[in-house]
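Before relying on records like the one below, remember that each one covers exactly one chain. Contacts with other chains, cofactors or solvent are not represented anywhere in the record.
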Amino acid sequence: MAEKKVTTKAAAAKTTTKKVAPKKTVAKKAEVVAVVNAESVGFRAGDVYQTLAAAGKALSVANIAKLANITVEEAYLGIGWLFKEGKVKDEDGLIALA
């Protein structure tokens, strides 16, 4: 039987390994899910109202959320409820009791 000789190019191609860059792990941003129903939004409105009443001055949405210990999304829900009822107003980009 005749033996097949492997050429050096073919041998080199078989022995080389392809280097693969390690995968980078990307931390996923935690999703904040606000429960949207009348009861939940009403409670957030109460949190916003109480925070504004305690502060006695106009606050930014971020400050309201921080002081009320709620998320910014929940603060917006509560503020929307209060705007609809005419209980809050806009003062130079800040939210104040009406």
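The mean pLDDT is 85.
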